[in-house]
Structure formats: C-alpha cells, structure tokens
TrEMBL record:
GO CC terms: plasma membrane
Protein name per UniProt: Protein translocase subunit SecY
Localization per record: Cell membrane; Membrane
NCBIfam families registered for this protein in UniProt: 3a0501s007
Family: Belongs to the SecY/SEC61-alpha family.
Origin organism lineage: Bacteria, Bacillati, Actinomycetota, Actinomycetes, Streptosporangiales
InterPro entries for the chain: SecY (IPR026593), SecY/SEC61-alpha (IPR002208), SecY_dom_sf (IPR023201)
Transmembrane segments: 18-39, 84-101, 121-140, 160-181, 193-213, 219-238, 316-339, 380-397
GO biological process: intracellular protein transmembrane transport; protein targeting; protein transport by the Sec complex
UniProt keyword Nucleotide-binding, yes or no: no
Membrane topology listed for this record: Multi-pass membrane protein
Length: 438
C-alpha cells in the first residue's frame, strides 16, 4: 500500500489532484478554528475544554461532530457541512413528491444542474436558521450550559449589529464550504463533500484517544483500542459486502452493427442506504430536546417532563429503542426512494437485458424488490447496532461522549476512506500500476 502511495505521487496529474485536495482541506480546517466576530478567543478555549468533558447530547451534538469541534469554538465554519447534508436529504425526498423535481432528475445533466442550484439555495436558508439558533443559544448560555461559564465572558458584545454580523459570517462560511466541496470534486480526488465530512470527523479522533489515555488505566485503553480495531474490520466487511445480480444482454442489430451479447451484474450493497438513516434518526431525536429548550426546562409542563425523562439522556432505554427503530425504518424508506426496481427493470427490458431465469418486466421488478428487501433487513439492523454502540458503552462504563469508536464516526471514516482509496486506485490502474487494494 505504501509503495502504491509513493507511485501515486510520482504520477503528475494524480499528484496534482492529491496536493490540491490536501491544500483545500487544510484551509477548511483553518476556518474551523478561527472564531467568528464578537467572540473572545481566550474565553472560548475554556468553553471548549469544559464542554469536551461534559455531556454533549444536546440539540447540536451531530452538528458539532460534522464541524470537527468548530461549533464549540463558535468558529467561522461552525456549521460545518451539516446544512448541505440536510438540504440534500430534503431535496431527495421532495424529488419523489414534487413532479417538477422528478422531471428535472430525468433530464440528465441539465436537470441535475438545476437540482444542485436548488440545493444551494436551501443550504443557505438552513444555514441562516441554524446560525441564528446557535448564536441565540450561545447568547443565553444554553449552548454551554454544562460548563457554568456565563455567556458574557465569551460574547462580550451582544448588540444587534454584532449578532447579525456573526450570522452573516457563519452563513458565508457555509457557502465557502460548498464551494470547497465542489472544487475538490472537480479538481481533486473523490467526492468533495464526503472528504470534508471525513476530515472534520477525523479531526476530533486524536483528542478523543488522548482523553481515554488520560482518564482510563492502560489495560482499559488497550482493550478499547483492540475493540475499536475489531469494530472497524467488521464495518469494512459489511460496507464491502454486496449481492451481485447477474444480467445478460441479448444481441441486437443497430443499423449494420451488432450490439449486446455481454454479461454484467447489478451490485446491491448490504448497506444500500449508507449513513443517511442515522442522520435522519438523529435529527428527529433532537427535536424533543429543541422543544425543551424553547419551552424552558424548568417549566411545570407535562410534555416537558415527559421529554426530559425519556428523550434527553442518550443512555435511556426508551431513547435507545426509539433511535434503533427510527434507523431501521429510515433505512427501508431511503432505499425505497433511491432504488426503484420497476425503473431498473424497464431500463433492462428497453436495452434487451434480462436476469437469467426471470422473465423481463414486472417479474424482474418483483425479484429485485424481493432481493433488496432481504438485503436491507440485515443492513438496517447493522446500522442500528453500530449507532447504539457508543450509547451502550457510555451507559455501561459512564464514559464521556468523546468515545471515538462508535456509531456515526466509524461509519463515516470507513465509508469515505474506502471510496477515496478506490478513486486513487482507479487512477493507478489506468497506468498499469498496482492499486492500494490487492
């Protein structure tokens, strides 16, 4: 693997892609540690140290994960990539509901360009809402309520002009992040947005490992690292697992030339939905906590008491059961809207393709739906178990939220890492080099 990595840097165009990607990601990380206007950097460092040792199961825990800790520093890139992810998910869902978007999706590159433009507009709108919410929570002290430090210490100026400037800067930071992602996709290696998420998640990994080393005995640290390596190996195995449906194309005459007669396959992954169901479920479970923040945690309200009892602590059995069921349900839902067996069957029939032993048309669609359902069942259970691992670990050991080998972090690191390695490997194979994966 190291030899292939050296050969990748010896290839001029691939070396330029790698260096450009590293350059953009470096600037991206710098923007994640630069405080927004109106923030006291010295006071915010105390907040970060205190908040990292506290329970980060609040409304914006997932945003903080995808921002690489920039949220806790109220940095220029505090929102991270989360507004774009949310906007992309919403647009994908609306594509099934709104005929206009469905028509654009079928128009090819021109339609996809229009959908991308809508996604950008929605991203900026969500960035305005999220930045306003974050600044409002920081101004009232709710964002760092576990630390006990007053908001006036890290936000000395709270006039309207300063607050509006902070909202503008954070929203502009989200727009710059979108631009960086598109630059990496066009001129770098792999999917830019995925690499930026990977960078932000991996940025918090060393500090989490250091925290465990400082807080736990050596044998516990070794046991956690060994369990993490086993978990990563299992995630790699499942992420690579797929069911290949054989497809045979009959020979056909087009003008004076013969086409077809080839054999291929449809790769259906066990985890066809990826990380999206976990993000869906996490977002929904943050709504009760947001409602508590809006209604007031100290209010004598039956709804607030119910939500505070069952949906605030991430280690409560009701919370974990709800989280697991939402992940399973969203996995089936997302696979259903992203993979249409009837459409695939029609395209195969149009080009003379068929699955051996299955009649073209409706029987093919029913067969694909049957196979996809059987694959999605273990895939959704796998996602639910992986996402619950850090919660179970925290409930059993009382560890902090800094537990690095868990849930969303491992899925993102392994998934994006494998995709990036495959991208580089494809460039190497074009020049008859051995790739990373042998």
């Amino acid at each position: 693997m190291l030899g292939a990595f050296v050969r990748a840097f010896r290839t001029p165009d691939l070396r330029n892609k790698l260096l450009f990607t590293i350059f953009i990601l470096t600037i991206f990380r710098l923007g994640s540690v630069i405080p927004a206007p109106g923030i006291d950097p010295s006071a915010i460092r105390e907040q970060v140290e205190s908040a990292q040792n506290a329970d980060e199961s609040g409304v914006y825990a997932l945003v903080n994960l995808f921002s690489g800790g920039a949220l806790l520093q109220l940095a220029v890139f505090a929102l991270g990539i989360m507004p774009y992810i949310t906007a992309s998910i919403i647009i994908n869902l609306l594509t099934v509901v709104i005929p206009r978007l469905e028509t654009l999706k079928k128009e090819g590159q021109a339609g996809q360009t229009k959908i991308t433009q809508y996604t950008r507009y929605l991203t900026l709108a969500l960035a305005v809402l999220q930045s306003t919410s974050i600044i409002a929570m920081a101004r009232t002290g709710q964002l760092f309520q576990q630390t006990g430090i007053q908001a006036a210490q890290y936000m000395p100026r709270q006039d309207l002009v300063t607050l509006v400037t902070m909202v503008f800067v954070m929203t502009a930071g989200t727009a710059i992040i979108m631009w960086f992602g598109e630059l990496i996709t066009e001129r770098g290696v792999g999917n830019g947005m995925s690499l930026m998420i990977f960078t932000q998640v991996i940025a918090t990994f060393p500090s989490a490992i250091q925290t465990i080393w400082q807080e736990q005995p050596e044998w516990v640290f070794g046991l956690i690292c060994a369990a993490g390596l086993v978990l990563i190996a299992g995630v790699v195995f499942i992420e690579q697992a797929q069911r290949r449906i054989p497809v045979q194309y009959a020979k056909r005459m087009v003008g004076r030339r013969m086409y077809g007669g080839s054999s291929t396959y449809i790769p259906l992954k066990v985890n066809q939905a990826g990380i999206i169901p976990v993000i869906f479920a996490s977002s929904l479970l943050y709504l009760p906590q947001l409602a508590i923040g809006l209604m007031g945690q100290d209010s004598d309200n039956v709804v607030v008491d119910f939500l505070s009892t069952y949906f605030v602590s991430g280690t409560h059995p009701v919370y974990m059961a709800t989280f697991f069921l939402l992940i399973v349900g969203f996995a089936f839902f997302y696979v259903a809207i992203t993979f249409n067996p009837a459409e695939v069957a029609d395209n195969m029939k149009k080009y003379g393709g068929f699955i051996p032993g299955i009649r073209p048309g409706r029987p093919t669609a029913e067969y694909l739906d049957y196979v996809l359902t059987r694959l999605t069942t273990p895939g959704s259970l796998y996602l639910g178990v992986i996402a619950l691992l850090p919660m179970v670990a925290m409930g059993a050991s009382g560890a902090s939220q800094n537990f690095p080998f868990g849930g969303t972090s491992i899925l993102i690191m392994v998934g994006v890492g494998l995709d990036t390695v495959k991208q580089i490997e494809s460039h190497l194979q074009q020049r008859n080099y051995e790739g990373f994966l042998r």
